[in-house]
Design brief:
2 copies of one chain form a homodimer. Chain A is mainly α. Chain A is built from 9 helices and no strands. At the A-B interface, α1, α2, α3, α4 and α5 of A face α1, α2, α3, α4 and α5 of B.
Chain lengths: 237, 237
């Protein structure tokens, strides 16, 4: 490659922005396609009418999307809080115990097999630049990346939206077919196709082999639903 | 503090091991306490008998724990795959285009305001140590940490177990009380207490203020259940 750094920047940028969006869609849609589908299958297994299946399914989609969305919001929020509290702490330490912090920089570089005469110029250079020094400690000592401010809300809406989109698909047959056990067959077929497509696309984005990803995703849905179906039937089948 | 580095090691270790376990428990139990609770509330709102609520609830717990557990397994697995494929790529680049990789190291250090004479010794030192050089690129260019091998399975079991533990709590009243609408009142009380305790403990581990965390967590459960309750009632209440 002729422009390795720009190529890498693109990669890194992807890794931290599109990557997060894709991850949120995957989190929301994986569960959205799987849980309401499995729940509906389970209730059909307990000989519940379609009306109950749809009620339970939509209640689950509402609860699941809100719970996952708000959960994602708070997770991103606390990542961000964690970063800023750690950053304040580094800033304080660099002011109050610069020598110990400098020796930490030395240790970090020594861990890469560098000799004192090789890393000392870096340590001294950072001591002259407190802001850069804090950035260095955050990224290289604590391995923390500066969080994107809009992240938490975007993450919440992405996860919730993906959950709802995924959840409606397996429930649709029950909305139009009064016999739950009949609707189940259509729901299984439609949802398995959706899981395969979703898994395939997910694979393209996440770097997993698309076909492997398609089958993994479909198998999760199948296993989860089989378990739900079996449990529901064993209770009042 | 007198031993800042050891203190930091402890912190970092926490951040990467106990931190992951706690995060998995939080992921599983947040949804486990919220979604089955909200689903049960929703079905009670649709005047379903306790038997249906319990069936739907347990079907949801089975589906949710399996879906989230397997989802967590695959997420950890693909993080690990991503790390090793990126590492292979860096290894290849360091062999094939060492000069461009060396200039990337220079750029990384220059971003911290270092002068060529300050970072050049480091660049040259890394060129003499390919393994350390790869580690340096993985951590400082791509910001990727070496994944723990047992992580994926441990993550799956932790999430699923936490989901089941959380999910049983709101369903228990429906198992012992035949009138769903009566059981609902007990379920609401028991689950709100559980959410507050869980949120408080979560806050202690994640660094969020415990009381704030307790109320945030309880509010997620309340909002999700209110939505599920409203939707279920609006369909066939």
């Amino acid at each position: 490659m002729t422009h390795p750094h720009s190529a890498h920047s693109v990669h890194v940028e992807k890794h931290f922005t599109a990557g997060d969006f894709v991850r949120d869609v995957v989190i929301g849609m994986s569960d959205g396609l799987t849980v309401p589908f499995a729940l509906a299958a389970g209730l059909s297994g307990a000989a519940a009418p379609s009306s109950i299946v749809v009620t339970a399914g939509l209640a689950e989609v509402a609860a699941g999307s809100i719970a996952m969305g708000l959960g994602g919001y708070l997770a991103a929020k606390s990542d961000s809080d964690h970063y800023w509290s750690e950053r304040k702490r580094e800033e304080k330490e660099i002011e109050e115990v610069p020598d110990t912090e400098a020796s930490e920089v030395a240790e970090i570089l020594a861990d890469f097999g560098l000799e004192p005469e090789e890393y000392w110029p870096v340590v001294n250079a950072l001591r002259k630049r407190p802001e850069a020094w804090i950035d260095f400690m955050m990224r290289f000592e604590l391995g923390l990346e500066k969080p994107d401010p809009g992240r938490a809300l975007q993450s919440a809406l992405t996860i919730a939206g993906a959950y709802i989109m995924g959840g409606i698909i397996p429930l649709f047959p029950y909305m139009v077919m009064p016999q739950a056990i009949e609707a189940l067959k259509v729901s299984v077929a439609v949802t398995l196709v959706a899981l395969l497509i979703f898994g395939f696309v997910k694979g393209l984005f996440t770097g997993t082999k698309p076909l492997a990803s398609a089958f993994q995703t479909a198998i999760i849905g199948a296993v989860a639903s089989a378990a739900a179906f079996g449990i529901a039937r064993s209770i009042n089948g």
